Amino acid sequence: MLRKHRSLFALVAAVAALGASQAQAAWTLNMTQGVTSMSGEIYSLHMSMFWWCVAIAVFVFGWMIWSLVAFRKSNGAVADTTLVHSTKAEIIWTIIPVVILVVLAVPAARTLIALDDSRGSELTVKVTGYQWKWGYDYLDSGVSFFSTLSRDSNEARQLQSHVDVNGVHEYLRDVDHPLVVPTGTKVRLLLTAQDVIHAWWVPALAIKKDAIPGFVNELWFQIDADKPGLYRGQCVELCGRDHSAMPIVVEAKSPADFKAWVKEQQDAQQQSRLLAAAKTG
Amino acid sequence: MAHSAHTDHAAHDDHHGAPQSFMQRWVLTTNHKDIGTLYLVFAGLMFFMGGAMAMVIRAELFQPGLQFVDPQFFNSMTTMHALIMIFGGMMPAWVGLANWMIPLQIGAADMALPRMNNFSFWIMPFAFLLLLSTFFTGGGAPAGGWTLYPPLALQGGDSFPMAMFAVHMMGASSIMGSINVIVTIMNMRAPGMTLLRMPLFCWTWLITAYLLILVMPVLAGAVTMLITDHFFGTSFFNAAGGGDPVMYQHIFWFFGHPEVYILILPAFGVVSEILPTFSRKPLFGYESMVYATASIGFLSFIVWAHHMFTVGMPLAGELFFMLTTMLIAVPTGVKVFNWSATMWKGSISFEPPMLFAISFLFLFTIGGFSGLMLAIAPADFQYHDTYFVVAHFHYVLVPGSLFAIIGGVYYWLPKWSGHMYNMTLAKWHFWLSAVFVNVLFFPQHFLGLAGMPRRIPDYAVQFADWNMVSSIGAFGFGLSQLLFPYLIWSCVRGGQKATAHVWEGSHGLEWEVESPAPYHTWAEAPSLALIERGAAH
Q: What is the per-residue pLDDT across A38-81, written as a single tens digit (0 to 9) for each?
């Protein structure tokens, strides 16, 4: 008896451990709340939409299920064939949805207008989409680099590589050089592309926009001051064979750390320029 | 001949008047019923072909990592799956149902333009032969997505001109088909069959046909510009030459949004036929259903850019398209409420067509909810181009349009074949489909919200669990569909004889002719009494 219980307990513990090991992101059901000033607002818009839909569903599906149960022929229901029209009912179920839509549209429009306002940004980075990598140019400081899929992901993703991708660090979501930005600062991105249309998206930043060859799109975000860290996303506009292999990693640092990072990059770039000049000269 | 409800003729006159030779009967035919059958059989073949591609997609997505196909081939699969399902499956299936049912329902002897009818069908097999042959070209089949966005679409190799020409052919076929529907409904109605006495299937198809006529030329224009950009050095969509790739998207979606209603409006019609029959009660709010359909048709022309909220439109544009898109919920809501009110105080029985119609009601509404969420532009920035969108449009297209098509076939099959089918097996078909379609598509909402983009052959490991569930649902759904052709085949070959009315609660002219419907029907227009009896709203 005891033994039986013990093995049961072991099984439960094993399942729990398995669950815990996968728990960081697996079986995710909902959108991230994000880490920017706007992402929380978008999340709450999303949730309020969701709950409105649930409320409407409870009413409509409840009505349908009621009918399906109560008016079964097998239950002896006799059809009321005179019930074919009701102007009153039709007016009610036209007006109520309109009212609900207005209630939903007001906060949505407000958020949309706020998202459009990129004034007062303190840092501008030009983002260029290529088949299949991203290029980042810090227009204020001259730092620029490409950001490509990390080497071990790239090896593992080949057809029949026989690499267990579960063992690869951040499989398909890791890059060699992340985009580094300061927290608590309004950052503006200018998006364009070199070849075909790509799209730049990091869910935690709640922004997504197309990178279009020959055109420049603009978007902005401001990561909360207390939320430094690594935020991951990827290209979301079909851009050819390796569309799934151009991830985006944003590394948010405190403004002081960011400044130090820029200095470091500038020095490194200066050094390599001098080296190149020395070689050719 | 016009009214022979009670006769139980022997099999010999099932097709009386039908030509005996195969060539005459099936290739050169101008008979609306035979052309309807050809369309439906063709659509069935295409559904299974597109379904096989979906199976390849879901097999590759079963686990993270690449197991079976090259990413380029995977992209061909998603592209061709969509093109085949939309243009080869859904649209021909609706045209097939229109061909079979519209003349029967309005008391016409045939479609108005029978030779064009034959032509518009026979374009389709060649268009799809051409499209499918691109798999054998260097570089493989088109892989830039069914939306054919430039510049990516222009990177296609030899497949590009072939696919473009195939799209042109499909467009020509659709335009001819829709002209035929409009002319038939406008000119061939039996005396006394006023527009507002028509069954709702005819109404929804009439509005659909207008949408088709208005937007297929727009698609043809977009495709032609792609061709000239590719081969003749124009720069419609090339910024380097002064063009704009986003302009293509505007033109495409000006076609594309009405197109999705072309796929769903006839489904509204079929459901509006089935629900009253098995609730034994006339459709609630017939006229408001007609107005709601027309409003949806109109709105479909002013919402297109909600497919492109992320291209960087001006704020005013985003606001406009967000608000107009939200507005669609109103007439769609009217429809759902009217359907619910149709069942209210009815006497409901659960034959296979009704089961499919009821699940349409529930699951299409779920697709409508996610559609409403997608309309909210700021939230759409999070949903756009993720699996949330994939879940949304599959909910409205599979348990939406496809279930309506299947329901329609189960509803009218006894009328076509003269036999009842195996009800038990058809109910199995329903329950398996209804369960697996949710296992297949519901988890895709979660994947999209968690951040998984569409159209990727491989994904980060945090998406693995729901992808596996979704793939299991896909295999189950795919396998259960094999019951459908088997059921149809055995029903055509034999079975319990169907009566003229087939169903206890059926109303309308198509139920006033014997089953199977004779080769020529309504050579003599139905009487006014018959029309009034049919139009019981």
A: 999 999 999 999 999 999 999 999 999 999 999 999 999 899 98
pLDDT of residue B156: 85
| pLDDT of A10 strictly over 60 | no
Percent of chain B with pLDDT over 90: 93
Does A279 reach chain B within 8 Å, measured CB to CB?
A: no
Check CB contact of A240 with chain B, cutoff 8 Å. Answer: yes
Closest CA to B77 of B57, B60, B98, B105: B57
Report chain B's mean pLDDT, rounded to a whole number: 94
Question: Of all helices (H) and strands (E), which one includes residue B380?
Answer: helix B377-383
Mapping DSSP to helix (H, G, I), strand (E, B) and coil, where does residue A131 land? coil
CB < 8 Å from A in window 362-391 of B: 362, 365-366, 369, 372-373, 376-379, 381-382, 384-386
User: Are A201 and A229 spatial neighbours (Cβ–Cβ below 8 Å)?
Assistant: no
Rounded to whole angstroms, the Cα distance separating A118 from A124 reads 11
Q: pTM of this prediction? A: 0.93
* Per-residue model confidence as pLDDT tens digits over A91-115: 999 999 999 999 999 999 999 999 9
Residue A159 contacts B where some CB pair is shorter than 8 Å: yes
Catalytic positions of B, written as ranges: 81, 110, 146, 173-174, 257, 259, 261, 272, 306-307, 332, 335, 454
Contact A165 B461 (CB under 8 A): yes
Check B64 against A171: CB less than 8 A apart: yes
Are B270 and B353 in contact by the 8 Å Cβ rule? The answer is no
Q: For residue A106, give how far its alpha carbon lies from the nearest alpha carbon of chain B (Å).
A: 10
Q: In B188-244, where does DSSP find H-type helix? A: 200-231
> In angstroms, rounded to a whole number, what is the distance separating the alpha carbons of residues A274 and A268?
10
Tell whether B457 lies on the interface with A, counting CB pairs under 8 A: yes
When pLDDT is averaged across residues A130-157 and rounded to a whole number, the result is 95
What end-to-end distance do the CA atoms of chain B give, in Å? 26
Contact residues on chain B for A242, CB-CB shorter than 8 A: 71
Mutate: best of B295, B334, B372, B442, partner A, most A CBs <10 A: B372
Residue ranges of chain B with per-residue pLDDT less than 70: 1-16, 536-537
Backbone phi and psi for residue A277, each to the nearest 5 degrees, phi listed first: -65, -40
Q: Is B300 helix (H, G, I), strand (E, B) or coil?
A: coil
Rg (CA), chain A: 27
Helical H segments across A23-121, by residue range = 39-70, 87-116
- Interface contact B279-A71, CB threshold 8 A: yes
Cβ atoms A176, A147 nearer than 8 A: yes
Query: Does B241 contact A at CB distance below 8 Å?
Result: no
Question: Which alpha helices (DSSP H) does B397-422 contain, by range?
Answer: 403-417
Are B334 and A90 within 8 A, CB to CB? yes
Q: Which residues contact A13 (CB under 8 A, 6 or more apart)?
A: none
Q: Is the pLDDT of residue A174 over 50?
A: yes
Question: Do residues B385 and B350 touch, judged by C-beta distance below 8 A?
Answer: no
Strand, coil or helix: what is B357?
Answer: helix
Distance CA B248, CA B222 (A): 7
Q: What is the arrangement of strands in the sheet containing A229-234, beginning at the earlier edge strand? A: A179-182, A247-253, A229-234
pLDDT for res B14: 46
**What number is the ipTM of this complex?**
0.91
Rounded to 5 degrees, φ, ψ at B110 are -165, -175
B chain contacts of residue A48, beta-carbon cutoff 8 Å = none
Contact B95, B119 (CB under 8 A): no
Shortest distance, CA A26 to any CA of chain B (angstroms): 5
Min Cα separation A118/chain B (Å): 12
